[in-house]
Structure to design on (424 residues):
């Protein structure tokens, strides 16, 4: 009976008696590993490099054009020296846009690169949350397994006690059977919790880009209920300021506006300057006695197809601008909805955890202690004692489940808002 009271005492003390674990997982270190090794981030980093490489291209002139001509060759003898009109012509030309064209294109490319950079930051925040979710799940599952194991030891002792009383005629066979059924239920719960733990470990390894069965340490044994503010309006304003996805969409809008400007400037013709040199042979009747020639030229594009080309380019860019603005507004609305939903869920789990901590767990502990005292003097039947013990077990696990669920919603909120939420 002393062993029974000791085991029940451990169960009544609950979560706080569980020892700290060696080789605890460091959440910050795991996040840094995921940011370094996650393949999805590697894709975005490569995409960012590609967009950054477009910036100097957008502002660069077109390559100069070189042309060689063997001109005015007589078909009678194919002799370039037989007539003063013949010669070898070398022409170098370069197209120059009027001021502002390349600048608008360069700004468009810069805004696009900035948008991808913000997308990368947003994905990094999402990856941090993807790491934190299985990390918190592991914390809950390890705690739930430990609590269930302690209660299984207690139940085994209760089974022995019930058998002893039944053997001496002071107990009922149904007490023995009920205790054995409860013990089997705990074994079933343990099977499920261990399977969930393996899945959480595999998920965490996948995010870290490790082999799925790589061994992991244990997360911290105690995670408390954080006291971050759950003011939806304040979080909406914070998300508008901090969420990288919204910054990325603002850059896409700016890119299309720069494209509108670039399309409008396409009405302005480009100017092509050319320099030609003709190498000639000497002919007796040549008035300049075989002197070489030099030529200078200026050419411009004539936008005679503006209705089908330049005007449509402007219309296209303006339509894409409106689409980008609409996407940004829709994303902002979705972010605000997610914040509202997560605030409601976090508040629910916080209130439930507080209710378990301040009322339900103390009441269950008192009820179990009272049932134990009554059972020792045969004033409380075995089934009542067993029911009180199982109730306390379920309350302990439910309390910590709400704590972890609250912390998961806070992690989700930080991912949606785009930055950590201060408890100040």
């Amino acid at each position: 009976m002393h062993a029974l009271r000791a085991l029940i005492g451990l169960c009544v003390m609950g979560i706080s008696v569980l020892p700290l674990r060696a080789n605890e997982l460091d959440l910050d270190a795991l996040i840094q590993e995921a940011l370094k090794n996650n393949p999805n981030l590697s894709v975005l980093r490569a995409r960012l490099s590609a967009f950054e490489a477009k910036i100097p291209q957008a502002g660069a002139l077109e390559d100069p054009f070189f042309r060689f001509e063997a001109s005015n060759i007589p078909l009678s003898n194919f002799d370039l020296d037989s007539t003063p009109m013949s010669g070898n012509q070398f022409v170098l030309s370069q197209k120059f846009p009027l001021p502002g064209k390349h600048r608008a294109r360069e700004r468009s490319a810069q805004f696009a690169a900035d948008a991808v950079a913000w997308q990368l930051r947003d994905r990094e925040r999402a990856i941090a949350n993807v790491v934190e979710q299985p990390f918190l799940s592991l914390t809950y599952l390890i705690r739930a397994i430990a609590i269930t194991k302690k209660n299984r030891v207690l139940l085994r002792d209760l089974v022995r006690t019930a058998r002893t009383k039944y053997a001496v005629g002071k107990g009922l066979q149904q007490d023995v059977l009920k205790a054995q059924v409860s013990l089997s239920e705990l074994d079933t719960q343990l099977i499920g919790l261990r399977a969930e733990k393996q899945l959480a470990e595999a998920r965490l390894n996948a995010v870290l880009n490790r082999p799925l069965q790589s061994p992991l340490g244990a997360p911290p044994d105690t995670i408390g209920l954080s006291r971050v503010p759950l003011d939806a309006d304040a979080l909406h304003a914070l998300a508008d300021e901090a969420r990288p996805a919204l910054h990325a969409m603002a850059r896409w809008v700016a890119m299309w506006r720069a494209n509108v400007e670039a399309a409008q400037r396409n009405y302005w013709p480009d100017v092509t300057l050319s320099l030609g040199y003709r190498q000639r042979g000497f002919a007796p009747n040549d008035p300049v006695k075989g002197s070489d020639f030099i030529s200078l030229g200026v050419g411009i594009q004539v936008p005679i197809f503006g209705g089908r080309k330049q005007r449509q380019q402007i219309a296209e860019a303006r339509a894409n601008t409106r689409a980008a603005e609409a996407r940004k507004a829709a994303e902002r609305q979705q972010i605000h909805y997610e914040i509202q939903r997560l605030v409601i869920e976090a508040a629910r789990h916080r209130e439930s955890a507080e209710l378990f901590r301040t009322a339900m767990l103390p009441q269950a502990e008192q009820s179990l202690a009272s049932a134990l005292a009554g059972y020792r003097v045969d004033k409380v039947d075995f089934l009542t004692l067993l029911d009180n013990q199982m109730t306390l077990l379920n309350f302990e696990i439910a309390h910590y489940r709400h704590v972890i669920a609250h912390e998961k919603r806070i992690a989700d909120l930080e991912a949606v808002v785009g930055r950590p939420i201060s408890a100040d």
Notes: Residues 223 and 404 are 8 Å apart (CA to CA). The beta strands are 65-71, 87-96, 271-279, 293-300.
